[in-house]
Amino acid sequence: MKNLTKILALLIAVLMLCGTAFAEATDLPRNETVYFGGQQWGSVVGTNPLSSNNNNSMAVAANARGSRTIMFETLYMYNMLDGQLYPLLADGDYVWNDDLTEMTVKIKAAAKWSDGTPVTANDVAATWAACEKLQNGTYTNYAAYIAGIEAADDATVVIKAVTTEDGKPVNPLQFMNYLSEVYVVQGAWIDTVMERNGNDAAKVLADPADDVVYSGPYGPYFYNDQMVSFVRNDAYWGQDESMWGKLPVPKYIAHGIYSDNDAALVAFKAGQIDCNQQFIANVQNLWLEEDLPIATYMDEAPYGICATMPTAWYNMEIPALQNVAVRKAIAMAVDYDNIIENAMTNQSPSFTDVPRSVMNPTDGEQAMYDHEAVKDLQWAGKDIEGAKALLDEAGIVDSDGDGYRELDGEKITLNACCPNGWTDWQAAMEMVAAAGQAIGLDITTNYPEWSIYQTVFTAASQTEYDIFMYSPAGATPASPWARVRSFMSSEFLGKDNNWSGNFGHYKNDRIDEIIAAIPQTTDEAELKALYTEATEIYLTEVPSFSLMYRPEQFHAVNETVWTGYPEKDDGDNIPPANLTDGYGIAALYNLELVEG
Amino acid sequence: MKNTLKNVFHSPRFVVGFTIFMVILLTVLIYPYFVTRDPLLGLGKGFLEPGTYVSVYDTNTAGTYRVELPEANMNRMESSVPMEDRVTIIEFLTAKGVDVSHLTTANGDVPELVSLWQENYDEADVKKSKYPGFTTQAKRKALARMDARLSGDSATAKMTVTVGDGDDAATTTVNDTDYVKVNEVANSITLPLGTDNFGRDTLTELVKATGISLLIGLIAGTVATLLGLIVGLLAGYVGGILDDILMFIANLFTVIPGFVLLILIYYSVGQAARGVTTCALVIGFTSWVWTARSVRSQVISLRNRDHVNLSKLSGHSLPRIVVTDILPYIASYVVMAFILQVSSGILAEAQLSLLGLGPKTTDVPTLGLMMNWAKLFGAYTSSNAWWAYFPVILVIALISFSLNLMNTGLDQVFNPTLRD
Question: How many CB atoms are located within 10 Å of the residue B46 CB?
Fold first, then answer.
């Protein structure tokens, strides 16, 4: 018996030694690895570019604002700084035919898959065909606009538009999104995976795709429950002169899996994360007070490029909120400066600097509507007296003396909701509730868990959340049109699982006409008039109100090991998109070690 | 009774605990008479450091006095070119190859350091030339900030204040010997504990929160003790099938960890209903078990005493026997249990709130909620605001420390085996 214990103890000791040896084998050399933070939570499911259920955000993250192209590549890369598309797998600019019903894209001759075969137009066509067969997210997003994708020859892709009855394309703007969002997948690999799963769509989408062929500069190195990592493909086609002319600098890309934001922040401060996509309250303290080698894209507030605007949506199914005076009064009473200063710790321009509209605060979008025309409709916030007067005027008064106003004899009781743990949003909702209390509306906060929240606010109909937060479309090649649509379009009404917009289910016929007209308008003055009218309706009807501006992705870097990250006015025109998204990936080619 | 109280107040532990507790309680009761501000009122930007804030605007309209401090210029220099900046200047100049071997960080060398800095620093050049040690964005930006600081204020520059605008503007010159008397400035505020992430005065909020947390503890403690007492008395005295049933329920509660139960019940209540009272009641309903068990075992041993049997023979009713013949014997235990229940009720609220399950923030502050928001806004990670969470922890620690001290003090008095 005693011997048995000894042997057991010895065995355990040996196992532990093996364990440490194994752990060391997977340790990455620090000065060849860029560590990311704030992107990957939990373990990886797969690496399947056709599926959206991989939980592998470093490898598969397709998004119109710029897909992550370290492993899979798109035809073009979107740059939110100038709103332009830069060719990646594509060769040169895309070409429209005269009536905007067909787009032609050339493929770079140098482009190769990781198995050495060339990327051809057939792969692009095969990708769309596979999406159609699988009925995946890509297909449902674009089927209304794209009729088909064909290969004219090996290097020429033709994308055909769905047309209206009079032969006009439904929406050419959505093509730009497609170009920068959808990964090109190898046709041969699609055949393999289809065959392997007996052409069963559900099985194909659930395939972890361990054998996937990719065209990007990095391939999977190892995944475990503590880290995901990728290793550079030194045969990457992009080192050809027709693309980057060199390989990206880091040999490895890694992302530790942390339990929560706080843990990730501690690692970031300690220099274990180089590039961090995470909201950090009072980020400036990290360099001003703690003297850490940490920087953001801009040295001054708002520290990043704010391209989206977290918004409080009014639920139009709640009788009290069908009243426009109530909607406007709440929006007028909210103290936005306080939200920006305290909830966002100044990481947003104020509404005094950038008045509210359907545009994000980038200069390009701000120029697209007439500020003067809607000046009188603006509100500054914290206007308690004005809000009270508006409610009094609308006959919404406190008649039973309980301190709260009634509408049609019923006390107005509302909740203000956002997901639990979304710090800055929670703080903002606290201030919305406080504003409601100040003008005699009983508003209280409610923070459900995200898993519940997401099913409720995206439902076709719900009466659980009265005022709730989510962001409209950010910066994509199709914005600001896409944002007008996501603020007010009635096309999302009655749709379950609606992630696209108009979460409050607002309906306005004129806005629908404008949304249909903008994509087909090319005259700039006319376009400006349409956007101005949309802003006018938005500010008069108040179907929702933005609480702050916010970067779509936070981007803070710790320069303990690497430097050469993009910064404002550095002349490189590389957006702060975590070195990986859209044209932001260009930053990976500029990195250098701090200790040369 | 009088004798018992006298004994109790002779126990040093009890006296210390009682004093701490009373100080906290009195502060909670009296403070609102001095500071009448709404504790939830946001005063300004989040996480202001503790200190006295004087309105810059009003200092210009307050009367000035001439004071000549001999060290005034040196103080100005130390504040406008602090030691870290001097070290950085020397490091930068050395890296650039400028000879600074004759210069130190002493006050006398500062003017020369600053002028050398202004001659040699150029933002674009630093970026292009990549001087060793200054290659990173973070370092370069730190230099640019320092440059702005150095050129922004100089100890000898003339300072003017313009009142009004346009043609009516009147300009006055501010001399370096002009002083204002702090209590003559119309607006100034002392924030002994700074502000929290919402810009609320932490001290005022803390006092209010302590009051609310004590209230939660009191309600939770009362509910738990009453429930435990009733269940224990009934189970112990009546016995039989009632005892079996009650103990079955109590055992169920013992087996399931109380805190898990608390989280589950509280979560199912839903956020809309989460007020202070609900919070306290839920805590009370999940923490009565141990009181019930102890009371029951004591009652069982009391049940067959002679005086109880005599009462039974005299035909006294059950409530009367319980109240007059049994309760007095376990009263000391119940009081001690109550004190502990209050303490654990306060801790339970803090734990719940820290998990984001506390009462609604819009209504009231509680100690747990204050810690929750401090955590959410990185008070101990990125924002470095010790004042937003440390005093809260201290108050929680002091409350439970004082209550526990009182409890052990009472134990010393009432428990014969511990009596000296």
Answer: 28
Residues near B114 by beta carbon (within 8 Å), at least 6 away in sequence: B81, B89, B150
- Is the four-CA dihedral B331, B333, B334, B340 of positive or negative sign? positive
CA separation for the pair A330, A261 (Å, rounded): 32
Check whether domain B2-44+197-418 has CATH 1.10.230.10, yes or no = no
The CATH code belonging to domain A311-546 is: 3.10.105.10
Cβ under 8 Å to B: A residues 569-588: 570
- The predicted complex's ipTM stands at 0.79
Tell me the sheet residues that pair with A33. A252
* Cα nearest neighbour of A427 on chain B: B198
Using a CB-CB distance cutoff of 8 angstroms, which residues of chain B are in contact with residue A434?
40, 362
Interface of B with A (CB under 8 A): 40, 42, 45-47, 127, 135-139, 141-142, 144-145, 197-199, 271-272, 356, 360-363, 373, 375-378, 381-384
* CB environment A303-325: b (16+ within 10 A), e (fewer): bbbbbbbbbbbbbbebebbebeb
The residue ranges of every structural domain in chain B are: 2-44+197-418, 56-186
Per-residue pLDDT 10s for chain A (596 aa) are 556 677 777 777 676 665 555 544 457 899 999 999 988 888 888 999 998 888 898 999 888 888 999 999 999 999 988 888 999 999 999 999 988 899 999 999 999 999 999 999 999 999 999 999 998 888 888 988 999 999 999 999 999 999 888 888 888 888 889 999 999 999 999 999 999 999 999 999 999 999 999 999 999 999 988 899 999 999 999 999 999 999 999 999 999 998 888 888 999 999 999 999 988 888 998 998 888 999 999 988 889 888 889 999 999 999 999 999 999 999 999 999 989 988 888 889 999 889 999 998 888 888 889 999 999 999 988 899 999 999 999 999 998 888 899 998 889 999 999 988 788 888 899 899 989 989 999 998 888 888 788 889 988 899 999 999 999 888 888 888 989 999 999 988 988 888 888 999 999 999 999 998 998 888 889 999 999 999 999 999 999 999 999 888 899 999 999 999 999 888 888 999 889 999 999 999 999 998 76
Q: Which positions in chain B touch A415 (Cβ < 8 Å)?
A: 272
Taking the model in full, what pTM does it have? 0.83
Q: Measure A300 CA to nearest chain B CA, in Å.
A: 10
In this complex, do B137 and A559 lie within 8 Å of one another by their Cβ atoms?
yes
Fold of A10-269: D-Maltodextrin-Binding Protein; domain 2 (3.40.190)
CA angle B214/B219/B220 to nearest 5° reads: 95
Kindly state whether A281 is in contact with chain B, defined as any CB-CB distance less than 8 angstroms.
yes
Question: What is the helix (H) or strand (E) element at residue A430, kind and residue range?
Answer: helix A423-438
- The count of other CB atoms within 10 Å of the CB of residue A99 is 11
**A279, A287, A345: best to mutate for the B interface, most B CBs within 10 A:** A345
Residues of A in contact with B142 (CB under 8 A): 287
Domain boundaries of chain A, sorted by first residue? 10-269, 311-546
